[in-house]
Amino acid sequence: MTHASRAGVKVSSMADRKKMSVAEILAAARAQKAGGGESSPPAESEPASAADNAAETTAAASSEVAAAEAPAAPAAATPAVAKGGARPSVAEIMKLARQKAAAEAPAEAAPAKPAAKAAAPKPAAAKASGDKPAAPKMAAMPRDTASILAAARAGAKPGPVSKADAPASAKPQAKPAAKEKPAGRPVPPKPTRPTPTLKKAAAEDRRGFLSVAMGSFMAVGFSALSVTGGLFSLGLARFLFPNVLAEPPSRFKVGFKEAFPTGKVETKFVAQYGVWVVNSEFQGVEQIYALKTVCTHLGCTPNWLEAEQKFKCPCHGSGFYKDGVNFEGPAPRPLERYAINVSDDGQLEVDKSRTFQEELGQWADPASFVTA
Ligand code: FES
User: Fold this and answer.
1) Phi and psi (nearest 5°) for 316?
2) Is the per-residue pLDDT at 113 higher than 80?
3) pTM of the entire structure?
4) To which CATH superfamily is domain 251-371 assigned?
């Protein structure tokens, strides 16, 4: 037996004898490889974790390497012995160990259970080696409650089952169920905050509306004030400068006597002077006189009715003869006369500043008529 084989056997025996960690086993293997001598035994005081698996895999790897390199060597001889000192590297040993473990996983699942139990409590050891647990080891892990419950629900296999034996549909059912809890909750929609841009735009719109409204109110107010001021100014002007009626002169000429034949009532001076010039007989004397066109009842202007030869008041129906004496209606007295005379030029001149009333006997005054 070579030195390497002896060392491997020694390591395996030590691993079997004591619980060693993978790091310790690897350190012993490196020491043996570097020195070619016997490696110092690992500290016995350190507790071994996953020692069984490591020892088994290391020994198996050593044997596999030996078998690959020296197939003709005896079964008890190691590869180092077969090759005469060419020892496999630790990486190769670990690789072969993993391959062997993967190949033997289905068959060794049941017996590997204790080893898996031993390796499970110390995941730090696996982390230290830098390798993830292989799939066969996962299959050999202790059966957990999820797999047992999944199998019980599926009814495929009563009792505890491993993860590998658990129905494939159970795994996806368990995980999504746990994940669907938050997804199943009705999530209220997140309220959207109004952006500052919208607030600014709304504020600007509000300010614009207020400005327009205030401007409109002020415009209407000023317009009303302007109209009121204009009307007030107009009223003040009318008060200060009232309409002045152009009063006709109180004395005016109406023409020569020949223009007023006997029995003639001239009405062309009614509108301008308010006078009828009449040539008629009164108390047996033919006279030309000027009658005032004001009804003695309430002051209306009567109309001369040529066909009826009378003055007729349209207001209340008072009637006057051609000489001005009242004969019907409410008029209490005859019409009045203005003064009339012959001017220097021979024309008849009417003077409205003097009036003559028949009931007072004033028509007998020569100033109240001109003989025709
Ligand atoms: Fe002429 Fe009354 S005013 S009748």
Assistant:
1) -130, 10
2) no
3) 0.38
4) Rieske [2Fe-2S] iron-sulphur domain (2.102.10.10)
